[in-house]
Input
Amino acid sequence: MTDRAAVESAIVDAHRREWARVVAATVRVARDLDLAEECVQEAYAAALEGWTRDGIPSNPAAWVTTAAKRRAMDAIRRDQTFRSKLPLLVEPEESVEDNAMGVEPLESEDLEDAVPDDRLRLIFTCCHPALAQEAQVALTLRLLCGVTTADIARVFLVSETTMAARITRAKKKITGARIPFRVPRPAELPDRLRAVLAVVHLLFTTGHTAPSGAALVRDDLVDQALHLTRMLRELMPDEPEVRGLLALLLVTDARRSTRVSDNGRLLRLEEQDRSLWDRPAIAEAHDLIIGALRSDRPGRYTLQAAIASLYAEASSFDETDWPQVVAVYDKLLETWPSPVVALNRAVPLSKVSGPEAALAEVEALERAGQLAGYRYLPVVKADLLLQLGRVPEAVEAFKRALDLTDNSAERRFLTERLSSLQPW
Output
């Protein structure tokens, strides 16, 4: 018998690190996303008893994958749930819909040539154009990447209840409309690329600064996002936004080891030891950015990468080329008019035009209400208020940020900021 606490810890670790890989492998047997997810959940549950009795296997992911596949095959043999939930992920050789439309069946060799990675293949599959892009992204993050509904809701700046309802509606639409969830043909991949890039970017964002939990970074999600982006780069090497996304992830992740001190304290950009940043990753990102910028109209990921690169390549925080950063932000807002981009622009704007001008921009965003639940808005506002000597207002803004923050490292950081401003 193996210690139950050790087994539970191993199962939690395997779930966090291998969920997407196990689902991707299982769905190739189940050919149905809901069935695959159900079988994987049952396999993880079975692991608790099996590993306690027989010991933790040397390859936990392989054990769970084998168990999930067996459950899927049993379910198919019983033929009770095979067609009762989500539409087929991989259709039979000739479905009713395809036959009526004169579409040739997709051979397995074509599928392998189109998307050689199981997880990336499933992301392309789930980013079906019949669904709204937000639904595609949310559904894929939840079912294939293992991101919780609560964390997805935080990313989209909506309540958990609202996000759960959106995911449910997306599932119902797939079922009710009998949307064929087949693996897309190579010619169909570009039409799904925008949603796939959004999924991978949000996966990275969720790992880079975890919306909840004790750790600031979820290494498993960050590493998965980087792997998927490199796979995309191999799959679609001529797509500028694929290069842009890879550059953005590389230059952002280059600071991973310096974002938290040895005692677990969150470190702001100006406090981080730049000598410890991953310079080869920053150099690789720079080359990718130069190549992507040669396209006629650089996209949002390329421009975000260019901004991150300006920060990374400066010899110090104070030596950052602030006017150039603002200029690229202006271009980014034209390409992607997001309130989050407008908020992020306020920080370099304060260096160029002063904190009062930046605060006016932040307060305008605050009045608009689109960032009402976004924890970084009151943080930016508090910093600007402090620069203007308006300490009592800054304290209230920090308190508001604390109310919106669930990540333990960020909560500790905000609590320390508040304590330093007492007795206001």
